[in-house]
């Protein structure tokens, strides 16, 4: 039973990475040019001559379960570094308590949300520039968009190494497509193409309302949006939601909820309720996947559709990182492990488990081996996960600006009104209301700090 739950967790992670999205702090772009000479031409990352010296390393499991660490990552690392003693510290142990007792882990495993909430909040950031040089780590191997994800918060510094990436695909109900004689989706579709398909599938038959598309829409279209749009302005303490690009994005997905015959109230239109529809077999397509629940129909996957305004643009997500803490007494060993995890040797093994590589160049072997060990994606069109290029972070905000954490929730609530019976508003009204509420919240938060 434990293994089954773990397999599902891995499948869900590869379908969508749940992130602690933040809109504040400063950042930069591009890769670290000082380290571009340390190239390995796609080969396993070099280790220092002392990489087999005994060392003790502790890992704070901020975004990794104890089971995943013990069954996947620890054995992989121990095989490469048999003289390293590894300990996983579960996130139930609070960082302030670990600091107070002098037991801060050497590596904190977290998504980008852990940068402001852990690394910066408690002063644990370690600039890895020198370690990257001494270990000859080839930073150019890493997908630049994932480095930018980190630099967004760190004013351009490298404080961690991505170990796996967000990956997405459009799941479709083959049984429903066959029932209504509709051609299957294909890789490379636009959202306009997808809407045309959804129109053909959306119908009421035998008293059952079928839908062409359903989704955990707030995450797919707003949190992981393909235009990399922020909620807060990059240079001022104000909202950045009332824009033409946000209008294009919102109209692009809300139309799926306004097809003839569809009705939503405040509950059924709620994003978490809409998530459940695909598993019932009455919806044709969905990105956010729960494949262990697909019991009554045949299904497969294709690439996530893109907006014609941004072709080949994947969803904006978040990798997981190994963040090396400045309190670590074994920084070089921690860097050796971080470098090894990004090697082709390690990434191929992780890919088979369903962890998408954070690499700039992903080999065909990795693409074809994705989820090879998964009971859910066996025989599926798994290369679709890698069809599009990862979206970049929004523009970095000027240092010192306020981070207003309620901005996304406000936006979600206002957009939902666009297709909720009795509350219908147009996109201009929804975005204008969201803008006003966010600006009001920012003003109140600033006033409370005076």
From TrEMBL:
Region annotation (Disordered) ranges: 23-51
Signal peptide (UniProt feature, chain positions): 1-22
Alphabetical UniProt keywords: Cell membrane, Lipoprotein, Membrane, Palmitate, Signal
Superkingdom: Bacteria
PANTHER family the record matches: ARABINOSE-BINDING PROTEIN-RELATED, POLYGALACTURONAN_RHAMNOGALACTURONAN-BINDING PROTEIN YTCQ
The protein, known as: Extracellular solute-binding protein
